[in-house]
Design a protein that fits this description.
The protein has 224 residues and is of the alpha+beta class. It is 43% helix and 25% strand. It has two domains: 136 residues, Jelly Rolls; 75 residues, Winged helix-like DNA-binding domain superfamily/Winged helix DNA-binding domain (Arc Repressor Mutant, subunit A). The radius of gyration is 17 Å and the shape is globular. The structure holds a DNA duplex (13 and 13 nucleotides).
Length: 224
DNA sequence: GCATTAACAGCCG
DNA sequence: CGGCTGTTAATGC
């Protein structure tokens, strides 16, 4: 169980709940810490919790048949995921790795299903979330061959500032160029070059150990 | 050729 | 010092 104030801070969707639903959610959530590089779960694991990143950075990925690591998405603090897996009661279809020291909020399956059955507000949130993730994964299809390195990096970053998946209006993110490379599926050196190109176009500002987005739409559509 | 890995010097907290 | 950054050199597909 976590404190009410804390839940409001880490879960934007909690604003859509009634008092009773909010209380139920609060009782069903625990918080857990993961060190840098730690696996939050491996593909095939049963992690029976719906999960939110409350601090840190998480990579959602998998390993292709030829053994190459494939990044599906990155998640920063404020992002929630795993609703599909919990609803279907399936093993995880991908790996989750903490790219830096990370804290996760875990909602047990029973609580999640109770909200699913009882809360109109929660269901509205879920539909929006599913819709957005669908778009995110469809967009992955064009990543591989249709986009060059700067474009892939731009799109990956843009998803970290998606207004539906993250309700905050934060434009700055603490993230190293190495981490950006991991999330974009390119090397640190290419990430460095790509960031400089995007900065030159006025789409973002490169800082030490972080970036600030100046033109989110420009990033999301860059190269396409 | 191009991107990736390796390697290194400079910088900053 | 330790982590991040910007470059260059070597290596691999």
């Amino acid at each position: 169980m976590i404190a009410a104030d804390h839940l409001r801070q880490i879960a934007f969707w909690s604003a859509d709940l009634t008092e009773r639903e909010f209380e139920q959610a609060r009782r069903g959530i625990v918080e857990k810490a993961y060190g840098k590089g730690a696996y939050i779960c491996h593909r095939g694991d049963r992690l029976d919790s719906w999960s939110g990143v409350t601090a840190g950075l998480v990579k959602l990925g998998t390993v292709s048949r030829n053994g190459k690591a494939v990044t599906l998405a990155g998640l920063r603090a404020g992002g929630w995921f795993g609703e599909g897996t919990v609803l279907k009661n399936e093993p995880r279809q991908y790996d989750l790795v903490a790219l830096r020291d990370t804290r996760m909020a875990l909602m047990d399956r029973t609580t999640f299903l109770w909200l699913f059955e009882n809360s109109v507000g929660f269901n509205r949130f879920l539909v929006r979330q599913f819709n957005e993730r669908l778009g995110q994964f469809i967009a992955l299809v064009e990543y591989d061959r249709m986009l060059d390195a700067p474009a892939r990096l731009a799109r990956s970053l843009a998803w970290l500032f998606n207004p539906v998946l993250y309700h905050d209006l934060e434009k700055h993110l603490d993230i190293s160029q190495e981490e950006i490379g991991l999330l974009s599926g390119i090397s640190r050196q290419m990430a460095n070059k790509s960031l400089q190109i995007l900065e030159g176009k006025g789409l973002l500002r490169v800082e030490r150990g972080g970036i600030t987005v100046l033109d989110l739409n420009g990033l999301a559509q860059y190269g396409g």
